[in-house]
Protein: Bis-ABC ATPase Uup
Organism: hydrothermal vent metagenome
Amino acid sequence: MAPPLLSLKKLSLSFGGTALLHDVNFSVAPRDRIALVGRNGSGKSTLLKIAAGMVEFDGGEFFAQPGATIKYLSQEPDLSEFSSVLDFVQAGISAGDDPYRAPYLLEQLGLKGDENPSELSGGETRRAALARVLAPNPDVLLLDEPTNHLDLPAIEWLETELKSLKSALVIISHDRAFLGALTRKTLWLDRGQTRQLEQGFGEFETWRDKVLEEELVADHKLGRKIVAEEHWLRYGVTARRKRNVRRLDQLHQLRKTRAEHVHVKPDINISVNKGRQTGTLIIEAKNISKSFGDSSLGDSSLGEKLIVNDFSLKVIRGDRVAIVGANGTGKTTLVKLLTGELAPDEGEIKQGSSVQMALLDQTRDSLDPNTSLKDALTGGGRDTVLINGVEKHVIGYMKDFLFAPEQLNTPLRSLSGGERARVMLARALALPSNLLVLDEPTNDLDLETLDLLQETISNYPGTIILVSHDRDFIDRIATITLISEGAGLWTSYAGGYSDMVALRGKGVIAKKGDEKSGGEKKQSRENKEAREVASAAKKSKKTKKLSFNQLHALKTLPQKLKTLQSEIEDMQNQLADPKFYSRDPEKFAAISKSLTLKQNRVEEMENQWLELEILQEQLASD
């Protein structure tokens, strides 16, 4: 076995008398792929900085193999001393490194190299820092939240690039899909100590839950021992003072151990302020288009950027719609169009009856940094939050969102990015709503807060529109995924991100040759269907009621669907027989063909029934 490139043994570190790390053991071998995970504030970033030689530690051993190159990606790169991005990247390259790799990486990451570092956005700064640590092909790459501020194409490119490297990787990330694709070991930093799983992040959460369940059993035994010790101290022989003192010390240690076990994996039980019951239709967009003048040309008349082109969509009660695409394709603009914040240049957008919207945006501008946590949640001057007509004490509501009671009067400026995101989520869910709009909700979140957000959204009783670059999060939440095809074209796929990739054959990164024609064809077909439905609706509206045939179809379609679905299930059971094909290949082929036709018919009938339901609601409300 090759000696480790990097090794930390029995490491300890304290801040202000509080132990952050104690008895930490951690080693990196050639080509290791390690996920470094732990709760927010557990010391993950500090441990990575120690491994990079940037932070001194109190005790323990540190070893780095002589001659090994170790590169560290900070969450907050500093480019202030450099006149251009290329200068910054090349400063990280040694004499023997490939001089052409820096320009290549910058090009792949969408940078030219001549940009002024002081004018870069957060995403551009992160791309420049990635180019700098990747350029030397180091022996060890220490990456702290490498996907922060990156869009989906950049994340997918980075994932592919890291897979191709020979470097050992240690990664801190909230992106489950990213960690799952890249790692083969998992280092869990928990209560100042490390535990290692010899498998990648994909297996971590199951293993962690098992460990915590075992700790609950141990905690129960510990609790019984504490009760016994307290009883002995209260009723034991008081003359044995020295022994009492010793047992008192032991009791304090037992209590300390138990306290460390408390809230390791907090229960999530959030009350959501439900809005009024909506109709079936939440939002309908008909052939909408939207453009903006190209400010880079100095005159909007000289050029326009087409954000949405002839787009139609129906959002039905209970839908979870995810919107994905590269930065600059208009994801946030599309959300603003669908929610009525922006008006389309062409086409029509209509909201259903009784829609109440709550918004969680990526900027979090609505948070006053000087406001206390209590006032941010209650609106000021109160101790309670109103949820579904019932007053709930603010401390209880805070605990739902993983805040400690002692944070009650903490100003928001003192909270971490993940904690501020939790405040926004708590505020949004305290409002009566049946439509929740989330614009990049996973930005700056740790895995713990992501779990909270995902659990909350999964249990949300209304409809959701979501913009995100987190593939795993989309997979767990979305029932519909909209993707930008460029040139204002948007395509809808059933399911989450992985479902979209399976149907599309690729993710957000796409070949330019076949992308346009496919997107245009599908969009054209969807627009045609939308126009036909709209035409039928206009004809029915003239009579102010459904025709006899429409009423009959509305009544009989559910039973017809039930019968068809039963037939489909029988066919699927027949085809599942592994010996069926060899026994009767002709019958197998006939049933397969019939199954496809019946499945298509089910989809047609479901759409027909849904259109009639919506039309009936619209006529009743007019």
Summary: The chain has a mean pLDDT of 81. The chain has 19 helices and 20 strands. The CA atoms of residues 571 and 591 lie 7 Å apart.
